[in-house]
Structures are given as C-alpha cells and as structure tokens.
Amino acid sequence: MQGNNNMFTSIVVVGASGDLAKKKVIPALFSLFHDRHIAKENSTVVGYARSKMTDDDLRGRIAENLVCRLKQEDQRSCGDIQTEFLNNLHYVSGSYDSAEDIAALDSKLKELESGHEKVRRLFYLAIPPSVFTDVAHLVHLHARAKQTVLVVEKPFGHDLASFEELNRTLQEDWKESEIYRIDHYLGKEVIQNLIVLRFANILFNNTWNRDFIKKVEISFNETIDVKGRGGYFDSYGIVRDVIQNHLIQILGLVAMERPLSMESGDIVAEKNKVLRSTTIDPSSVVVAQYEGYTADPTVEPDSKTPTFSRMTARINNERWAGVPFTLTAGKALDRTQTSITIHYRSIPGEPLFNTPCGNTCNRLSIIIQPDERIELRTMNKVPGMGFDARCSDLNMLYRDTYKGVHIPEAYERLILDVIEGDQRFFVQSGEARLSWVLFEQTLKEIDDGRFEVKTYPFGAKEGEI
Ligand SMILES: NC(=O)c1ccc[n+]([C@@H]2O[C@H](COP(=O)([O-])OP(=O)(O)OC[C@H]3O[C@@H](n4cnc5c(N)ncnc54)[C@H](OP(=O)(O)O)[C@@H]3O)[C@@H](O)[C@H]2O)c1
C-alpha cells in the first residue's frame, strides 16, 4: 500500500466488537485522525463483526477510549474531533464465513467510497486465528479494491505445521507485500531506537560483541494473570504467547549485523541470519505455573500450561558465540516490566581502587515498558576524601528527556506504516517460519511434559523461580 494524497482509504476493523478493536485499534485510528494523518475527506473506518449493533452502538462503545492530545495553540476542541471521527465510523454486522455477508460489506464500502476515483482498502483482522483464513479468503473473492492489504494479528499459528498451513492458505490469495503481520513490540519507541543506539554510537557499535559482552537478558514480567483470556492462553502458554514472537523479535534486533539500509528487506535479511544461527539450549529451559492458575474457570483443571518460562538462546556466529541470551517471560509476577540488559565483561586484572564489585560494573539496561528509559551503569569515584569507587547509573528517562514529545502507541505507529506501505517493522513470512523452527523442539518437549512444571506464588520475583 503506497502513501498517496489523492487516495481514499477504507479501513475495515474485522472483529470490531472485540477487546483489541476497542482498546487498541480504533483508539489508534482516532489518534491518527486527531493528528491529521487521516481525515474524513480521504478515509472512512468501518467495523465488522457478527454482533448485532448499529453505527451508534459501536460509536458508544468506543467513545470513552478516544483520547485527545491537543496542543495549546490548537483551535479545535476535543469534543469536535471526537464527533467528527465517530461520524466517520460505521458498522456492518455479518459472519466470517458467509460470502453474502462479505459482499454486503463490499457494497457498504462502495457506498462510502463513491465519488472517489482512487480507493484502497485495509482490512485489520482483530479476530481469533480460527476464523481469519475464512475472512481473508472471502475478502479476496468479494471485497478487494485495486489496492488492498490485510493486517494479521499474532499468533501466527500454534506450531511450525499450523503456521505453514495458515501461511500457505493466506498466500494462495494474497501476495507477501499485501500481508502485514503485526507484532506490536516492533512498534514500540525503545525497540525502534535499538537500531539507532547500536549503529549510531561508536561506544556501543564497537563493543557490541563477545569480546566485551558477557551475557544478554531479555525479559518480560507482568503482574497480571490470565483472567478473562484463560481459554486462549491455556492452549498457547507463555512461550508461544511471548517468547517465540515478541522476545525473539527483540533478540533479532539486538543481535543482527548492521543492515545495508533501513529498507524493510535489508533489516529482515539481517534478522533472518540471526534466527538461522540461533539454538535453544534444552538444559536451560525452566517452566512454571503460578499457584491458582487452574482455579480460573476458563482454564483446564489439570492444565500444565506454563505461565512462566526461562531459557537460554545461543547464537552460533562470530559475533556472539559463547554469549548466553537469557529469555524470560512470566505472568502474575511482582512487577510489570519488559527490558533488555546487556552485561559487559570486567576489566582484567586487580582493581586499582577499593570497590565492592571488583572490576565488573558496566551494564546497559533498556527498559521498554512501562516507563521507557535507558540506563548505563558505570564505575565512579565516590565524592569526598579517600578513593573508593562505586557503580552508579547514567539515566535517560524518555519522559524527562523528550518533554512535551508525544510517544506514539505501538498500534498507532504501525497502522500508519501500513497506510504508508512501510513493512519494515512487520514480521515477514520467512522470519515467522524461522522462529517456529527455532522453538519446534522445545515446544514439543514442553507439550509432552518432558520438563517439570514448577509452581510459584502469585507475585513472585522473576529471579526466585
Ligand atoms: N486483546 C489483545 O490485547 C491482543 C493482543 C495481541 C493479539 N491479540 C490478537 O488479536 C485478535 C483479536 O483479539 P481480541 O482480544 O479482540 O479477541 P476477542 O475479543 O476474543 O475477539 C474479537 C471478536 O471476534 C469475534 N469472536 C470471538 N471468538 C470467536 C470465535 N470463536 N469464532 C468467531 N468469532 C469470534 C467476536 O466478535 P463477534 O462475536 O461480534 O463476531 C469478538 O468480539 C486475536 O487473534 C488475539 O489473539 C489480541
């Protein structure tokens, strides 16, 4: 999908009655509308789902989630922008496997698009994976415009075989350039900054390898449990839900070589090389479940699905051989934080100064959420008499450094990328396949019960499991 000013864009949110549409997708479209990336003159938003609703019902459901970010000099009122956006939001009810219903959606779209010569369509599939191949096929047959793209949510399959089946079915009707597989982590500000931090700072660029780095930790901690999503989660588990996609995408960006350019193909090519060189060390795998998980009515009573897992990835190439990449993800832990920690080696020899930690101190922490920040731990002399040295942090908190700068929500940025035809921060089919290949054996062993599933108390610390 190419950005073009004369183009009218119809954005269809399939699954508009659902949680993702209400909390993320439609609010992100509102933010794009608010910031004039889309306007009523050149776009329309249509929700589609089975639930019987009117346009006004959908507008009423969504309204409370539309947040304005007006600047002081702005002449508009928040209420006016919301009303304008909501008036441009429509709803069509229909099922996901009925050609007539999708054809009816097509008629509604044609009505909204009438008078516009150049039209393109974006179908955001915010629906469970069990129905999205049906929708994709019927849209291909009955609701395509000249330019049409699909946005597909993870999970992209349940294992390698189901991914390949899903992908084969999609690719019968859709070209790779028309499929945007969204992993919202790739739209996060700090994740996108990894490329700049690594390749535009000689300090990091020249030391980003096994000679200087001892280990890398990528971890995702959440205080929330699976309440309400137990049905979905129980058949996936934390490895499929978080490690196999979000954390592996982060690992790819942390470990890849410098891409030839910022073009999508060049970045993906480098991430793919990393995935091909990576293995999971089976002896490192820890799986655990929080106490009380099976009491959730949406979960199987004897479920062994892990809600926590830790494992070590090894990247067998010249840059990373011997450096463990620890991947950890867990729910119902003591805090919510996603971070990357790069631990540097120590300076050889005896320390010159009196320090509590020898010569080991340098550490780069990149906090992705909740509060975006970058911290660099260095050794410094303790001020005053004597010559003691201690570790202290240079701290860049995005909120303070970029005061007044709006950090877009991941969904907002990624949907704009789709509108502009930019696939850089989307998951290509080869990459998705390689990440399933990487986890094939580990997931099989977890599913077959080869690892003991430990239990941990609700609110446990990651390091204690
Ligand atoms: N929620 C999140 O934060 C999140 C994050 C990452 C990825 N995702 C993915 O995004 C997609 C949508 O997520 P969601 O949380 O919005 O899902 P959801 O609320 O469970 O489902 C969205 C809509 O799909 C329809 N639906 C639900 N179950 C169905 C079924 N078994 N068969 C047919 N239609 C069904 C329902 O609409 P009607 O009954 O009105 O048709 C529902 O409102 C999923 O693939 C999910 O894995 C969600």
TrEMBL record:
The lineage of its organism: Eukaryota, Metamonada, Carpediemonas-like organisms, Carpediemonas. GO terms for molecular function: glucose-6-phosphate dehydrogenase activity; NADP binding. This is Glucose-6-phosphate 1-dehydrogenase. It comes from Carpediemonas membranifera. It catalyses: D-glucose 6-phosphate + NADP(+) = 6-phospho-D-glucono-1,5-lactone + NADPH + H(+). The keyword NADP applies. GO terms for biological process: glucose metabolic process; pentose-phosphate shunt, oxidative branch. Pfam families: G6PD_C, G6PD_N. Catalyzes the rate-limiting step of the oxidative pentose-phosphate pathway, which represents a route for the dissimilation of carbohydrates besides glycolysis. Pathway: Carbohydrate degradation; pentose phosphate pathway; D-ribulose 5-phosphate from D-glucose 6-phosphate (oxidative stage): step 1/3. Residues 12-193 form the Glucose-6-phosphate dehydrogenase NAD-binding domain. Residues 196-462 form the Glucose-6-phosphate dehydrogenase C-terminal domain. Keywords: Carbohydrate metabolism, Glucose metabolism, NADP, Oxidoreductase. Belongs to the glucose-6-phosphate dehydrogenase family. It comes from the Eukaryota. HAMAP family: G6PD. The keyword Transferase does not apply. InterPro entries: G6P_DH, G6P_DH_AS, G6P_DH_C, G6P_DH_NAD-bd, NAD(P)-bd_dom_sf. Its EC number is 1.1.1.49.
